[in-house]
Structures are given as C-alpha cells and as structure tokens.
Design a protein that fits this description.
The chain is an alpha/beta fold and 230 residues long. It has helices spanning 37-46, 62-65, 85-103, 118-129, 148-154, 183-196, 214-227; strands at 6-11, 14-19, 27-31, 53-58, 111-116, 135-139, 163-169, 200-206. Helices cover 35% and strands 21% of the residues. The radius of gyration is 16 Å and the shape is globular. The mean pLDDT is 95.
Length: 230
C-alpha cells in the first residue's frame, strides 16, 4: 500500500490531508485530534490494511463540531459542548466529501467514517444522519455522552451501514467523573444494539486509559472494517 500520492486541500478553515491509493479502493475519512494523519497512515500500512485512500481532516472545533447536542462542562475547568454536529456534518457531506472524491484517483468503492474520542462519537452519530458512510470506526468513542444511548435506541440508523467497529481501553471507565464512568457500559449496550439490528459489529477491549495508543487503536479499527466482505 505504499504510495507517494499525497495532497492537501484547504476548505473552510480545515486542512484535509489526502493519502491516495493508486487504484480504486475504499475511502476512510478521519477527524484528527492533533495532526496525527501521517502516523495513522503509516500505522495502517504497518499492520497490513487492505488498500484504501485516507482523508484526514484537521482543524476541528472539537467540543462543538463533534458533539450532537449541547451539554455543560463535564469537569472543573472544562468548557461546554455546543452540539454543532448537524451543522458540521452538512458541510462534510455537501462540500468536503465531493471535493475529496474529485481529488483522489478514482471513485471510492465505499466510504468509512473513523474517529477517536469525540470524533468516535461523531462517527456513530453521523450514521444516523446520513447515508454517505457504509462502515463506522469508533475507537475509544465518547459514548458516555449524555442521552446518546436513548438516542441510538429511539432512532433509525442508516440502512447503508454494514459494519461498525467499537473499542475502548480497559481503564477508561475507571474514573470518578460521573459522565465518563458509563463509557464501557454504554459502548457494550450499543454493540449489542447494533448487532441486534443485523449490522456486523465488533467490540475490542485494549489495554490502557483513554490516551494510550490512540493511533494504534484507530488503525486496528480501520483494518477490521476494511477486511469485512459483503
């Protein structure tokens, strides 16, 4: 999967770094936490992911654009989340994805939305709001988010979604924070929910806390997702 075909797009204040497969392949869209796109691309190659193109979106307003509805600060000194995911998702699907599709060498076979932490929450939320993505990677996703489990149960996920990968670190729920403590329970509940809807779903427990090996966890999620045959 070696390629030197790399391109950068600048759209609406976002830097989108493209790593392009030389042939027709799936497209993985990933919202970067801290510019880790190059490391993620190399990690995916190292573990032998099937060929794919990667669009890494940098410059995200994390607490606003990745969250589905407003919540107050979850800890002292934190900032509130404004819940602007719907507005950002429209920008992503209406403007960013078409531009990316026009830039990569060939039309994607299908699209994967992958994310870590709040971007993992956003990936699952987006599956309810758009038909653009047939596979979802939520690595250490912030599925503790208040009222998200009821939302997932009460709404219909896109019929285009074929596969969902969920993961956590085994220490992530070991916290006194009343919001974060539910993350493992919620993630397992949602894994069962999606499986019950006939979606190919897997859950992987990793070692460590939320901040351990984010690139490796995401790469393994991408690998599993790309390996699924339908």
């Amino acid at each position: 999967m070696e390629t030197k075909n790399k391109t950068t797009l600048l759209l609406h204040g976002k830097k989108i770094r493209l790593f392009c497969a030389p042939q027709t392949a799936p497209l993985v869209v990933y919202h970067a936490v801290m510019g880790e796109g190059e490391r993620l691309w190399k990690a995916c190659q190292k573990i032998g992911c099937p060929p794919f193109s990667l669009a890494v979106i940098n410059g995200i307003n994390w607490d606003d654009e990745m969250t589905p509805w407003p919540i107050p600060p979850i800890s002292k000194g934190d900032t509130p989340c404004r819940g602007c995911a719907d507005t950002y998702l429209k920008e992503l699907t209406d403007e960013f994805l078409p531009q990316v599709a026009d830039t990569i060498p060939s039309k994607p076979e299908y699209c994967v939305l992958a994310g870590y932490s709040l971007a993992g929450l956003f990936a699952v939320y987006a599956a309810y709001k758009t038909d653009c993505f047939s596979r979802i990677v939520s690595a250490s996703g912030s599925l503790w988010y208040p009222d998200f489990v009821p939302f997932a149960r009460q709404n219909r996920i896109s019929e285009k979604v074929e596969a969902i990968y969920l993961s956590l670190g085994d220490l992530e729920s070991h916290t006194k924070n009343p919001y974060l403590v539910s993350v493992e329970e919620n993630t397992l509940v949602l894994a069962d929910h999606f499986s019950g809807q006939g979606i190919r779903t897997t859950f992987q427990m990793n070692s460590g806390n939320h901040y351990h090996d984010s690139v490796g966890r995401t790469a393994r999620g991408i690998q599993w997702t790309l390996q699924q045959q339908f």
